[in-house]
Amino acid sequence: MIHRIIDLPVQFPILREYKSEAKLYTYVRENSEEIRPNQASPSILIFPGGGYRFTSDREAEPVALHFLAMGYQTFVLRYTCAPAHFPTQLMEAAAAIQYLRANAAEFLIDIDQIAVMGFSAGAHVAGCLSCMWDNEEICKALSVKNPSVLRPNAACLCYPVITSGKYAHQDSFAGLLGEDADDKLLRLFSLENAVRSDMPPVFLWHTADDACVPVQNSLLFVNALLEKNVPCELHIFNKGPHGLSLASPLTSAEDSSPLVNPHDAHWTQLCDEWLTKIFN
Which residues lie closer than 8 Å to 156 by C-beta, 6 or more apart? Predict the structure, then answer.
């Protein structure tokens, strides 16, 4: 396995101007003459959650290894958190996907089958990239002439932070934009307002009784996606706390934890089936 920790500000010096400390972790199967030699695979770029205050271990390596075992080349972006604010995180996400496409041959990835996957606030990062991949400031800073190089091919959003309105997770928006962000900026990053018809297809899952980031976040986003005719799939599980990750003992401190939920754990299989349809 190719497991590296890539310092993104070293690869993209412009990121230093945005106070970036981002690191990209690779979990990549090496080429084998016995197993599909030289065949490019689909890949997933993972954004852990943490309210833009930290990036959760529970939504990082265990998720990457799980989907690696399912046949994807996987990557985890440990993006910079508060006190760094927008556009740092979006810039880092764009740089990460640009890096993957530039190094596709080394990592044996298909440049047309790159999905982003985010959890909670990390899903907001993934959603921002999916909606704002051609942001003028981002493209200029990264010297991107063809903005489509920054566009994911699919987005998988897990109990996502979406709205800055009635059902907002206020602390995430404070972490992204600062405590005193004005209403105009908050509306801009309320992603139900940012949906566009040329964004990638979206898979979402949430639990109905999420007491931290209400399920209405996913519902608002799906309604906006449907209005723009963006292909999407939503799964709402009846029970389960926020932050389930894989919903298995692999991402919980104790087997008896409410974070272990065998029924909700089916989301990974549903996501794999959806990605297979999208990419084929």
Answer: 44, 115, 116, 117, 118, 126, 202, 203, 204, 271, 274, 275
The CA distance from 237 to 140, in Å, is 41
What pLDDT, in 10s, does the model give residues 75-109?
999 999 999 999 999 999 999 999 999 999 999 99
Q: Output the pTM of the full model.
A: 0.97
Two structure tokens written together for 150:
């920054």
Amino acid, res. 149: V
The secondary structure of 29-91 as a DSSP string is: PPP-SSSSTT--EEEEEEE--STTT---GGGSHHHHHHHHHTT-EEEEEE---TTS-TTHHHH
**Which token pair is 93?**
């996400």
